[in-house]
Amino acid sequence: MGRLEQRVALVTGAGQGIGLATAERFAREGARVCLADTNSEVAAQEASRMVDSGADAFGIRMDVTSRLEVEGVVERVVGRFGRLDILVNNAGITRDELIHRMSDDDWRSVLNVHLTGTFLCSRAAQKYMVENEYGRIINLSSVSALGRRGQANYAAAKAGLQGFTKTLAIELGPYGVTVNAVAPGFIETEMTRRTAERMGLSFEELVNAATEEIPLGKSGKPEDVAAAILFFATEEASFVSGQVLYVAGGPKS
Questions:
Q1: Is residue 58 part of a domain?
Q2: Strand order in the sheet with 244-247
Q3: So which residues are the catalytic ones?
């Protein structure tokens, strides 16, 4: 029996990378899963593949910056499965640039997806979690929250998510809802592949450069982050809330 039997999960940005790995891990642990992504075709394809493997899952388009889309998807999940137990706020984008070259749109778009999107999804989901007196909200922060050159927008958003996480843990705790964050370090995803392209490096060169700074001497995989997210989603973490877990191959502060 899986650790998430009978639980219902909504994962944003689930078309690839960490979001997809999380949805797959949840399904293997017995959860019924909604894969939400701006690319509805990819979300549907990945969900269909999971169904072929025995999972109860479906994919759907969702722009996390749209209140109407977010509320509509949450209602559809509850309508289909009867409840919503777990929300993983994973959707994210990057618009890396040094501050003197960062445009207004670079700033707004990153904060809107990470901060506003997490707010909209959490607000919509907590309604049903509070009613059921049970819930798990897991937000994706990053080591960039501690500061990183060329990522003033991304760092600000990820740091903001940590404050948001701690505040929601206080507000929703009395209703049986835990709220935690996972902060990945360097993870091999399509996002980091695009970073390599922008830097004019091969992906192998970027990975090698990153691992030189990681105490464990290796880069992370989406499955490493999914395992940490799974912990926060389980009963074993029922007394853990308002925490930020760095998954970075070494200590962060």
A1: yes
A2: 57-61, 32-37, 8-12, 86-89, 135-140, 177-184, 244-247
A3: 154
Question: 95 and 41, same structural domain?
Answer: yes
Instruction: Say if 251 falls within a structural domain.
Output: no
Task: Using the structure block, give the residue that is written with the tokens 């740091």.
Answer: 159
CATH number of the domain at 77, please: 3.40.50.720
pTM equals: 0.95
Q: Tell me: the pLDDT tens digits for 173-220?
A: 999 999 999 999 988 887 877 777 777 878 787 788 888 889 999 989
3-state helix, strand, coil in the chain (%, to 5): 50, 15, 30
- Cα 110 to chain center, whole Å? 14
**122-168, pLDDT tens digit by residue?**
999 999 999 999 999 999 999 999 999 999 999 999 999 999 999 99
Q: Return the H-helix or E-strand segment holding 126.
A: helix 117-132
Task: Tell whether 80 and 13 lie within a shared domain.
Answer: yes
